[in-house]
Write a structure and sequence with these properties.
The protein has about 550 residues and is mainly alpha-helical. The chain is built from 20 helices and 7 strands. About 45% of the residues lie in helices and about 5% in strands. A 5-stranded mixed sheet has the order 3-5-4-6-7, with helices on one face. The chain has a two-stranded parallel ribbon with strand order 1-2. Helix 5 runs parallel beside helix 7 and helix 10 packs across helix 13. It is globular. The chain starts with a helix and ends with a helix.
């Protein structure tokens, strides 16, 4: 164990030098976005976020309501403090402090009272949601988020089989927007070993300020940090090895040293650092495509070392998979978006594709996995900028919803980003997206009106503006528009040719919603829905598409 940890730290130190050199190259090559402060070389260590749609399972303690995506988002399921809500959305998408387009103060003062006859009120929508749940999903019992098999992105306590919170020995400080890959691998290990733990959300520097009480524990501000039996441990790999050493009675995640898998453990760690370093350099500087492709080939070959299963050490998932998971996930998102090359789903790397399929069948990873849109907007503020090259434009348009990927009808399987087989029931995804919207509608209305509010202090993440104020004069318009969105999500009768909910379009057009206010506020919300902070990918694309449906219906002649 000591030898593995020592070599791991040596690999991390080598990687830090690679990161430093990559960033210097980027700065010398005059890439404006990459001219970041060198103190931010440590990728993702200073990021945090807040959920747009806080879950009802989310604690109402401070920072309970994740800020909107990229630390700018609000969690649909619960009520976070305003600063937390704003920080998350800010951190994920970066704050744009510019004023809204096309909406002036005079326009807001002269908004007519909205006609909402025939549009369901929130109470009626809550009842409709309950009826649907009972009639269509009666066999699906709602689990306690502290004990559910599926990892919970907003739950602050995970008990698993422990009787109560007195059995919790671990507190994990992680970023509130679920952007940090180093936090993710610790989170994944805790879920796999089913160690009871408590979460404290901390914003990343790119979208908010670290709380003073956290800085007392970790003066550098770096995350993750774990407190295990009263001992403070920083550095993600240190935390992983400590958890494995202390909780030996839980599922073993490191193979026995004398076994074939144990002998390969170190080689696998070196393979992980190699592909990470090659990807990071190529992503940030634009140099090193061939090195990345060769590292991906080597990773694919490593997955063939053990024939008895799809994971790096064979049949059983191990700590090696926890180390690879955050970065392979981000490669799958960023390589097509910034480089125009499909990574996941590429026939050149069939074993990597099988590994993704196996990971997505696990409750631990399914509850943690993000989507391509979230990653590609949270990476630049964390690493100082990403360089686009090659045939990337078509992928950027698709992932950002510029084509038809955020328009109805949606394909069951997805496009460049696949929808997990377990999440391909579109009706269920719509109902769950509506549930998050309905359960947290008050906070979401307030958040959405920030599109027209007074700008606050800028942050590094472009779509994260945690300090922007809401605009009460737009609340009535947004309230009606979001009620229409929820009703459209829950609609049973749908046009078979385009999946439009029957009669909803007529309802939308019967209102006198301001086109400019509706478009500004709903677009602001749509672009800040964070995965997994607010909901999973299948639910997020349904919400984005139905927000677009309302926007298009209001703004089209």
């Amino acid at each position: 164990g000591r030898e593995i940890k020592k070599k791991s730290l040596m690999a991390d130190n080598r990687c830090r030098w690679i990161h430093f050199v990559s960033l210097v190259i980027a700065m010398v090559s005059a890439q404006p976005q990459a001219r970041m402060r060198l103190r931010k070389v440590r990728y993702a260590h200073n990021n945090h976020g807040v959920a747009l749609f806080p879950s009802r399972f989310h604690s109402t303690r401070r920072q309970s309501f994740s800020r909107p995506y990229y630390q700018t988002s609000t969690s649909i399921l619960q009520n976070p403090p305003r600063s937390s809500f704003g920080d998350m959305i800010s951190s994920i998408f970066g704050g744009d402090a510019s004023s809204s387009n096309g909406v002036r103060g005079d326009d807001l003062n002269s908004l007519p009272k909205v006609r909402d006859e025939g549009i369901l009120q929130w109470g009626a929508l809550t009842q409709l949601l309950s009826n649907i749940s009972k009639s269509e999903y009666s066999g699906m019992t709602e689990e306690d988020p502290a004990r559910s098999k599926l990892a919970q992105s907003r739950s602050k306590v995970r008990l698993f089989d422990a009787p109560d919170e007195s059995h919790i020995r671990v507190t994990l400080y992680r970023d509130s927007s679920s952007w940090c890959p180093y936090c993710e691998k610790v989170w994944l290990l805790l879920e796999e070993k089913r160690i009871p733990y408590r979460i404290e959300f901390v914003p990343m520097s790119c979208y908010g300020r670290k709380p003073a009480e956290f800085l007392q524990i970790q003066p550098s501000g770096g995350i993750p940090v774990a407190i295990i039996d009263g001992n403070v441990i920083s550095e993600s790999n240190d935390i992983l090895f400590q958890l494995e050493a202390i909780f030996k009675d839980k599922k073993p995640m490191i193979p026995e040293g004398g076994s074939e898998a144990g002998k390969e453990f170190q080689n696998m760690m070196r393979t992980e650092r190699k592909i990470f370093s090659a990807w990071f350099q190529w992503l940030v500087t634009g140099f090193g495509e061939q090195q990345f492709l060769e590292a991906a080939d080597q990773t694919n070959k490593a997955l063939l070392r053990f024939k008895d299963g799809p994971y790096f050490l064979g049949e059983q998932m191990s700590m090696i998979d926890c180390m690879f998971a955050p970065f392979l996930e981000r490669m799958a998102a960023s390589v097509p978006y910034y480089k125009g090359i499909v990574f996941r789903g590429n026939s050149r790397w069939p074993e990597i594709n099988k590994w993704f399929d196996a990971m997505e069948a696990r409750d631990s990873f399914r509850g943690i996995q993000s989507d391509y849109y979230s990653h590609n907007h949270d990476l630049p503020p964390q690493v100082g900028g990403c360089r686009s090259q090659g045939d990337y434009k078509k992928f950027q348009d698709e992932i950002d919803g510029a084509l038809d990927s955020w328009q109805l009808p949606l394909s069951d399987a997805g496009e460049t980003e696949p929808v997990r087989p377990t999440d391909r029931d579109q009706r269920y995804a719509r109902v769950e997206a509506a549930r998050r919207l309905i359960n947290n509608h008050k906070n979401i209305i307030e958040f959405s009106t920030r599109a027209l509010g007074e700008p606050g202090q800028r942050v590094m993440a472009p779509k994260a503006d945690p300090y922007r104020k809401s605009e009460p004069r737009a609340s009535e318009t947004v309230d009606v528009a979001l009620r229409l969105t929820a009703e459209a999500l829950l609609a049973t009768e749908r046009n078979p040719s385009n999946d439009y909910p029957e009669n909803i379009i007529e309802k939308i057009r019967s209102t006198n919603l301001s086109p400019s206010v509706t478009e500004e506020c709903l677009s602001y919300l749509r672009d800040r829905v964070g995965v997994p902070r607010d909901m999973n990918f299948a639910q997020a694309r349904q919400l984005r598409a139905h927000l677009n449906l309302v926007i298009d219906s209001v703004t089209s002649p």
